[in-house]
Every structure is written in C-alpha cells, then in structure tokens.
Amino acid sequence: MKRNFFVSAILFSSLLTSTIFAAPSEETDYMAILLDGHKIGYAIHARKVDGAQVTTTNDMNMLIGRGPTAIRYTGREVNIESIAGKPIAFETIQNISGMEQTRKGTVNNGKIKMILQNGPTSTESTIAYPVGALMAEGLRLLQVKKGLQPGQLYDALLFRPDMAQALPAKVEVGKKTSIDLLGRMRELSEVKINMQVGQQAIVFTEYVDENFMALKSIIPMMGMNLEMIACEKDFALSQDDIVDFLDKLCVASPTPIGSDSFAGPIIYELTATTSKPLLLPNTDTQAVKEITPGRFEVTVGPIQPPSRVKFPYAGKDKEVIKALEATEYLQTKDAKVVDLAKRAVSGTDDVLKAAQKIESFVKGYITKKDMSVGYASAAEVAQTRQGDCTEHAILAAAMCRSAGIPARVVCGLVYTDAIGTKKNVFGAHMWAEVFLDGKWFPIDPTRAPNGFSAGHITLARGDGNPTDFFSLVNTLGCFKIEKVTLPPKLIAAPAPAESK
Questions:
Q1: Which pairing describes strands 111-118 and 214-221: parallel, antiparallel, or unpaired?
Q2: Could you tell me the CA-to-CA distances from 208 to 50, 139, 181, 366, 471 in Å, in that order?
Q3: Which residues of 130-150 are buried (b: 16+ CB within 10 A; e: fewer)?
Q4: Closest by alpha carbon to 19, among 234, 195, 225?
Q5: Is pLDDT at 264 greater than 80 in this prediction?
C-alpha cells in the first residue's frame, strides 16, 4: 500500500507559503522545512529584477519516509512577470524519487500556451488565463498596497502554476507577536490565509516582517503541523530527519475484523480529532451520516453490480464522459497503455468482466511491488512495471478509460491485520472505481480478484492527478475510529435428522 498522496499535500502547502508574502529584495533567502518538529528539507527563495521583468524562483528539497523506505522530492517553480505584476511565463519542475514532471507556460492575450512533460509523455495545450489571478510579483504588490495594519481583510486570487489554475484566498492581518525562529526571537505580524481548494479550505498562518517576508509559516495538515522557518544557509542545507508517515497515518481499529466480515455492511463510528470540518464523501458503496458535530457514522458495503452491460460507454452523462478522458497521469492514448488495455479485456464486451480482468491483469503486470516509486503516471508504470497501490490504481484507471470504461481513482483507508508492528489498523490506500449501469463499482488491483471490500473507507476521488487529493489534508490523520459494528454472522441451518 502506498501513502503517496501526502507528498502532494506537503508540496502544495509548501509552495503556497512560498508565494504568500515573498521578500521584495533581490537576495536569496533560505528556509528549513519541519514536520512535527523534525527537519525534513529546505526551501530557497530568490527574486531578481532584470529591466522590465521580475523573476521569482522557489526551490524545494524534502526527504519523506515510508516505513523502511525514504524518497527524495525536489521541486522548482519559476514565475516571470512585468514590474507591474503582469504574468509573462512560468515553469515548474517536480521530481519524486526519479519520476519527473515539467510544466512550462507562456501567458499572452489572456491565454496560456502550455507544454507538460510527464515522464515519457509530452502534451501541448492552450487554456484561458484566469482573469485577475496573481502570480508571485503581482501578489507581492497587492500585499504592499494593503499593508500590515491589524484587522486588515482582503481577497486574492492566486495562480498556481503546478495546477494551472487559480485558487481564491482570504487574507486576514493580525497583531504583532513575538515568534521563535529556531532560537531567534522576532516581533512579527501574524497573517492568516484561508485557501479554498475545491470544497476544502486549507488555513495556514504566516509571521511576516515589515518587508512582507514570511519568516515562519505553519500549515496544519493530516493531524500534523508543517512549518517553514527562515534560517541560515548552513542549517537549511544540513542533514534531514526521516519522519515515518506510515506510522503517523495509520488509524487503529477498536476491534479485529475478520475476512468473513468483508462482505459487509460494516458500520464505522468516526470522531474528528481536529477543529476543522471533516468532509467525508457519500458513494455508491459508502453512506455517511453525521451523528453529532464531529462524530460520523460511515456504513460501507460492496454493491452487487449488474451483468451484461456492454462497453464502450455510449451515454450522455457529462460527469461520466469526463471519466473517459485522458489526464496528466492517466494517459489513455499512450501506446503501451492502449496495448495493455486491449490485452486485458480481450474476449469480452461486458463492463463488469472487463473491469475485473483489468483488476487482475494489473496485479500480475506490476512485478516489482515496493514503495520506492514517488508518484508515477500510467505511462511510466506501463514501462517500469513497478510500484504499489498508487501505481496499481493509476494504471488500472487509465487502462479502463482506454478501453472505453469510465474510471476514477480513489484514496482512502483499508483494513489490514498488521502494518509493521501495529496490529488491526487502517492504512492509507488507493484503488479505482468504474461506472456501469448508473453506479460506480470499486476495483482494487492490489487485492485482486474481487479486491474491494467493506474494509475500505473512501476519503477522496479524482482523475489520478495528485492535486485531486488535497482534501486529504483535512481528513487523513484527522479522525479516529471509535466503534466498528460488524455484520451478523450467518447461522448455519441445523442438519436434517437422520431417518430411522
């Protein structure tokens, strides 16, 4: 099982802090990145004015531990703007354990011409630039204009190059307070930023100096605190600690769950452990009911799918049609992905049988099952045949779409008897779901055949892109399971009496 969606959450939150309250100088600034007090990496911020252009560069480097494995993330974001804050161009480079994605864009006449290189796949596109969206220099100019008067409130629309979209934010300036910067005390202004990502709000706190430089940032995420703190270069580049996310993101089960209960339904009672709203999705296999504020009843039970539903999908439902499209990580037209899909579904035109064939095919096709892969696309997995639950889910969803079966990627928890030294726990997991006859039917290639069970709790769904799963910042690691109600066991009928 892979716990890779936290990589995206950390990356996203960290990049946001690098665009809020950036230093106006042309000097290079260093920050240490800490998670729950452990240094896991560093960030470097630079701003350069060259004639009529301003170039803002943010570099990041983090070490992320998963049980016995550690992966290295490196990223760079470059914003090029006019001195008035008008967007000109941008570039992002993300490398997770050797898997690299590069996005380059130029902005002209309200349009973005963009090239995305994801592993072996390159795509070009032209999209509209969000009206009024600010990049790094534009945001800095807005901050200077609004000032740091306590009580100041204002809105901002921030363009995220790594997502190629704009996110709304509400900014609130607080009072000056004494802040510890790794042993150095400074009087800094508190600034709270409420960033809306889909239906989820990510709220983080900045402590800034009179030059609008964020010297400390705190982002609550997944039950932990991510911090970025200004420091000397030597400390920023010093050795990193390894934080074991597998241990931190496991959720204990109050009772063992035997395989005979997986047919369900199983009822889970969950209690939020943070003050943030806990948004849990209702699905065709999961019903969520809020019992009291912060306490939920989640009922999970596999559904009986209909048979003899043919593919490819020929309906008109826009949401379902969208689940057939290629995305950055589900490259449905990649030659290798297309070939694998054809091989897997050969001999059937039934959706259910085809999906189950793909489920089992992917389990067998990925031969090197480990946690050393960062977050690979379907095209990369098709070539390397390597990965764990993330790669299984991504490849399965892409193959389904390639075959004409609408599919999505799911993130959540799955019950297991043991993870490391922990017994009877739910671990973070990824699987897929396919659409047939009006419902979404889950498949789990890591547990094929018939991989999905009532031991799966859904937290988020998307198209496979890491940015689809930022809602996990406020759900994963933010609740505990208080009670598990298992289905009643079937009572065997008494044996017939022997005839005399």
A1: unpaired
A2: 26, 14, 12, 48, 27
A3: beebbbbbbbbbbbeeeebee
A4: 195
A5: yes
Alpha-carbon distance of 442 to 456, in angstroms, equals 10
Q: Could you give the CA distance from residue 148 to residue 207 in angstroms, rounded to a whole number?
A: 11
d(CA 175, CA 187): 10
| DSSP per-residue codes, 446-458 | GG-SS---TTEEE
| Beta partners for residue 205, in sequence order | 192, 218
**% of the chain surpassing 70 pLDDT:** 90
CA distances to 130, 133, 325, 377, 432 from 334, in Å: 30, 33, 12, 11, 19
pLDDT above 60 for 498: no
Pick one of 3.30.710.10, 3.40.640.10, 3.40.50.300, 3.10.620.30 as the CATH number of 250-485: 3.10.620.30
The secondary structure of 2-51 as a DSSP string is --THHHHHHHHHHHHHHHSS---SSSEEEEEEEETTEEEEEEEEEEEEET
Asked if 97 and 357 touch (Cβ cutoff 8 Å), the reply is no
424 vs 302: CA distance, rounded Å: 21
Domain ranges of the chain: 5-244, 250-485
Amino acid at 425: V
pLDDT at residue 416 in the model: 94
What pLDDT is attached to residue 497? 52
Q: How many Å is the maximal CA-CA distance in the chain?
A: 106
**Phi and psi at residue 14, to the nearest 5°:** -70, -40
> Is the confidence at residue 454, as pLDDT, over 60?
yes
- The answer to whether residue 500 scores a pLDDT higher than 60 is no
What is the SS3 assignment for 202? strand
Return contacts of 58-64, CB within 8 angstroms, 24+ apart: 58/15, 58/18, 58/19, 60/11, 60/14, 60/15, 60/18, 60/33, 62/10, 62/14, 62/33, 62/240, 63/240, 63/241, 63/242, 64/6, 64/7, 64/10, 64/40, 64/243, 64/245
